[in-house]
Amino acid sequence: MLKRLYEWMMGLAGHRHAVLWLAIVSFVESSIFPIPPDVMLIPMVLADRRRAWRYALIATLASVVGGWLGYAIGYYLFETLGRPIIGFYHLEGSFSAFQAWFAQNGGWVILAKGWTPIPYKLITITAGFSHLDPLIFTIASIGSRAMRFFLVAGLLFRFGAPIRDFIERRLTLVTTGFVLALVGGFLLIKVF
Hints:
It is built from 9 helices and no strands.
């Protein structure tokens, strides 16, 4: 089933309304949809690298707005909708660990995890369930999603098709390296 969804989304990337579909997929991926918008973002940027930043911005904004749906599910509908969504993706163990992190560092967790391949829906639903401050949730979501989509768009803009395989296979490595550099930078600033 996931393979068919993936192929369907790849087809949407070439559709004449691809930008609208990118926004829709980015929105629903933040709360319920299993496939990340990168599946559409990558071929769209490769098809027209001049629009890389526009596509990244659309994915970012739609993902953040969709994140509010995930937040609302966690906040208001956890037992009826949130728990089944987390169960469907077999994320129960991750959800419990995220709850403890959110109690201490909600905004930082979103900033660090929201742009990695960890399902963003887990983050948004957990944030709502944990009643994370809405302003912190919004700011951290904007930062994390922008970093993710602009990193992908930037690599594709700079290197084109040769970087596509690297991104698709090693996105976790790239984002982990960037998070480590970001955290290291904050620690250096704090020390000095």
